UniProtKB/TrEMBL annotation:
SUPFAM superfamilies to which the protein is assigned, alphabetical: GroES-like, NAD(P)-binding Rossmann-fold domains
Keywords per UniProt: Metal-binding, Oxidoreductase, Zinc
UniProt superkingdom: Bacteria
Cofactor or coenzyme needed: Zn(2+)
A Pfam family hit: ADH_zinc_N
Alcohol dehydrogenase-like C-terminal domain sequence ranges: 180-292
GO MF, one annotated term: oxidoreductase activity
Upper lineage: Bacteria, Bacillati, Actinomycetota, Actinomycetes, Micromonosporales
Protein known as: Threonine dehydrogenase
Family: Belongs to the zinc-containing alcohol dehydrogenase family.
InterPro entries linked: ADH-like_C (IPR013149), ADH-like_N (IPR013154), ADH_Zn_CS (IPR002328), GroES-like_sf (IPR011032), NAD(P)-bd_dom_sf (IPR036291)
Domain Alcohol dehydrogenase-like N-terminal: 25-137
Amino acid sequence: MRATLMYGAGDVRVENVPDSTIKLPTDALLRITASCICGSDLHPYHSMSPENGPARVGHELIGIVEDTGSEVTTLKRGDLVVAPFAVSDNTCQFCRENLQTSCSHPQANFWDGIPDEGGQAEAIRVPLADGTLVKLPVAADSALIPSLLTLADVFGTGYHAAIKGGVRKGSTVTVVGDGAVGLLAVLSAKRLGAERIILMGRHQARTDLGIEFGATDVVADRGDEGIAKVRELTGGHGTDAVLEAVGHMSAYEQAIGVVRPGGVISRVGVPQYENAPIGFGSLFRHNIVLAGGPAPVRAYIEELMPDILDGTIEPGKVFDATTDLNGVPAGYQDMDARRSLKVLIQP
């Protein structure tokens, strides 16, 4: 089978690898029908050391069940399923609290932590299949596939940002970042009833989509200028919630600058830092809450899917390019250069 491997920063290749197979009785084997490149995949694309490669990549996928282990009870050959970016049993104490990204099962993991598997490939072995996979009530060639694929990560992650940010009817919200997660955080905030949604981004094609998703204002400036613009729009106070969907220190500092007293900074951009301001002058003085983390998207799939199926929302609009496996290395280049927002892969 063919799969995508990252050998180091800027070095992505598609190669022949050993076929994925059932290893444990709780596994399922999928033939992947749709996957994609994630903005978080660009972090190792920028920084990965060759000593840590080659590594399989890809953590968002839809596929058809080809085989199941002897203990899998909820899936059968031919089922079309979506796989969240984290493997979980969906039964442990933390899963029952909708924290599937903290599942306590020994096999629970992020896809990036399973060495011989990855979503940017022709097939994949899914551990804990009963808990991880969710059946889709459409055909593999449905026009809804791009939107349903966002349930594997980016839509659920944007929704998690809004939920952890306490967004509700009448809220004021700033979204930092105009990537796919940021744009779907806008969509999520709108879905939850936010009254004002300020999108901080500077790529017009993306911010235009953000306006379509529900943004009421766009601020293209960064740093102190961007902070001043948001405060000007909010009577000098900032917004109730700030959804940080980038992960860099500059985005975190921007979030601190635009949150109102008593507000919430909800981070879902994977932090590219360990040390950040949390003291008196940044968070403590004005009772700012810091929230967020890896989104337990498995917890949100059944909640969000009906709005996709009935056409109420179309989160798949974040995909602006499509390729087969041969085009994946170029897809990374295009996303890195901001020529593409998010690349859909049809193996």
